[in-house]
Write a structure and sequence with these properties.
The structure holds two protein chains of two kinds.
Chain A: E1 7-16, E2 19-29, E3 33-38, H1 45-53, E4 60-65, E5 75-78, H2 92-98, H3 101-104, H4 112-124, H5 140-154, E6 158-162, H6 170-185, E7 189-194, E8 206-210, E9 214-218, H7 220-223, H8 226-233, E10 241-245, E11 248-252
Parallel strand pairs in A: 3-7, 3-8, 5-6, 6-7
Antiparallel strand pairs in A: 1-2, 1-4, 8-9, 10-11
Helix pairs in contact in A: 2-5, 4-5, 5-6
Chain B: H1 2-6, H2 12-37, H3 41-50, H4 52-61, H5 65-86, H6 91-116, H7 124-129, H8 137-166, H9 168-173, H10 178-219, H11 223-248, H12 252-273
Classes of the chains: A alpha/beta, B mainly alpha.
């Protein structure tokens, strides 16, 4: 155990249905980092998050959060749209209050302090005015901000967002990134998985390119290169323009299904 | 009119029936709210039909049905939960296998009990369709005790049930034992089905579990509203069904189910007239 703050993954191998979904994954993310986890569908992004979150069994290796394997309260998970029961009649306020449940236990009910925390979190993501709206009445971007507010209410130091940009328009993606950057600035580790970063890659501190193993890990300008993108998306599936303009890295990935 | 309303309750059997009907109408939709939002209606129906086994065993051995129905019902519920997770075949298939198998075994044991223990044998029509007018003092007491147990379970586990129903993965990440919560819900489901057997019967207990909650789902904005409105619809349906059973001599289960279905129809029309507008 290295006792380093942040997320430390060592020799991680995860099997799902007898198939090695992740093989020998190693990385360390220090506090105060916004990390994009990029890979095609089926590359193991959700499996990686599941292993970090402790909801998937690890075949080999270790995951340490802030130097310990104990995850209680340390981590918040913003799930994929498909894993949420959107027909459940919960309001924005109800969902954010769920972030307080792990602090309440079986016999204590939400008190004034919990309600104040929920209000603060909703105000921070700009959704206090929509607190009484049902979760299904919100747009994709608003839903993601609701779940980020839930992570804040949980007071987690590590936030995982699985396919957070799925069904979210580019303008709303910008808004989400701004909220995530503010979490990063408070010293939290924020990891966001996506199969397509389009032109937002430069907004991340680090990029992990994954396709069952780590293909590249580093700042966007280092992590992306033609070899890595070909390994991620294949020679027939990728058109990449990687140019440095005015000190900014501009990256576009386009998937072909042929 | 007043005689029509209070007249039946000059008989003690009608007072007992009223208490049990009200408890059934109150409790089944409360648990039903969790069931319909989790998509577990088929499991509820299967569990209700499977509980015929412990009830039939009680009939065979000459016990009061609760002696075997309560522990047996909980055991079958937990077995169903386990099988649906671990057989490797689809949820509805594994539940369907248990459903059909248990119901068949239960009917066979019931037919044997008629020969072995004829004076204690259960009338199969009453078991299937319910006969709330025949409830005993013991039925009332046991129903009250079980009601307290179910209410305590809902009170303690409401938050966990809500979180695991809305976002099972997120619930696991914050440390909620989602499997335990699922088994708690199945145990509560078994208890309310046992309470509902005398009034609604095995075939239609699901009607009281699902229909009032489904109607409330159409009317309420929040989950607590689904629980409270569902309970109100359930009580109205059960008590109205009791009157129909008394005056029209209908079996109580079908009578309650018909009233609940009528209310559901009205709720559907209301929902169509005033739909919730979604942003997307």
């Amino acid at each position: 155990m290295n006792n380093e703050p942040g997320v430390t993954v060592t020799d991680l191998t995860v099997e799902r249905d007898g198939f090695r979904a992740l093989v020998n994954v190693n990385f360390h993310i220090g506090p105060g980092n916004l990390v994009g986890v990029l890979g095609p569908n089926g590359a193991g992004k959700s499996t990686l998050f599941g292993a970090i979150a402790g909801v998937l069994p690890i075949a080999r290796g270790t995951v340490e959060l802030h130097g310990t394997k104990d995850r209680a309260g340390a981590l918040a998970y913003v799930p994929q749209r498909d894993s949420i029961n959107l027909r459940f009649p919960a309001t924005v306020y109800d969902v954010v209050m769920m972030g307080r449940y792990c602090h309440l236990g079986l016999f204590r009910f939400a008190g004034r302090k919990d309600r104040e925390i929920v209000r603060t979190c909703l105000e921070r993501v700009g959704l206090w005015e929509r607190r009484d709206a049902l979760i299904e009445e919100n747009s994709g971007g608003q839903r993601q901000r609701v779940f980020i507010a839930r992570a804040l209410a949980q007071d987690a130091r590590i936030v995982l967002l699985d396919e957070a940009f799925s069904g979210v328009d580019v303008g709303a993606q910008e808004g989400i990134i701004e909220v995530l950057q503010s979490l990063r600035d408070e010293g939290r580790v924020v990891m966001l998985a996506t199969h397509d970063l389009t032109n937002l890659a430069q907004r991340f501190d680090q990029i992990i390119c994954i396709n069952r193993h780590i293909c590249a890990y580093g700042p966007p300008e280092e992590a992306f290169n033609p070899e890595v993108l070909e390994e991620l998306y294949g020679s027939h599936g990728l058109v990449m323009a990687h140019s440095h303009m005015g000190g900014e890295t501009h990256i576009e990935t386009h998937m072909h299904n042929d | 009119m007043i005689d029509f309303i209070i007249g039946p309750f000059q008989y003690s059997f009608m007072l007992r029936a009223l208490i049990v009907s009200a408890l059934v109408g109150l409790l089944l939709p409360m648990v039903g709210a969790y069931i319909i939002t989790r998509g577990r209606a088929f499991m509820s129906d299967a569990l209700a039909h499977s509980i015929v086994v412990p009830v039939a065993v009680a009939s065979l051995l000459g016990f009061t049905s609760y002696v075997t129905a309560v522990p047996g019902g909980i055991a079958i519920a937990l077995l169903m939960g386990y099988l649906s997770r671990h057989t490797g075949i689809s949820d509805d298939t594994s539940i369907g296998v248990v459903f059909a198998g248990m119901f068949a075994i239960g009917l066979i044991i019931l037919s044997i009990s008629v020969d072995v223990n004829p004076e204690r044998a259960i009338n199969i029509e009453d078991l299937l369709l319910g006969q709330v007018l025949g409830v005993t003092r013991t039925d009332v007491l046991v129903s009250l005790v079980l009601t307290v147990a179910v209410a305590a379970g809902i009170f303690l586990f409401h938050r966990h049930l809500v979180f695991t129903t809305f976002d099972p993965l997120g619930a696991r990440v914050v440390g909620i034992k989602t499997t335990v919560v699922e088994y708690v819900l199945l145990a509560l489901l078994a208890l309310v089905i046992v309470i509902g057997l005398s009034a609604a019967g095995i075939v239609l207990v699901m009607a009281m579990l699902v229909i009032p909650s489904a109607a409330a789902y159409l009317l309420a904005r929040r989950f607590t509203g689904v629980i409270l409105i569902g309970a109100a619809i359930g009580v109205v349906s059960a008590v109205a069904g009791l009157y129909l059973s008394f005056y029209a001599n209908w079996p109580s289960g079908p009578a309650m189910a018909c009233v609940a279905a009528a209310i559901f129809g009205v709720a559907t029309l209301h929902k169509r007239a005033f739909p919730v507008k979604s942003v997307e």
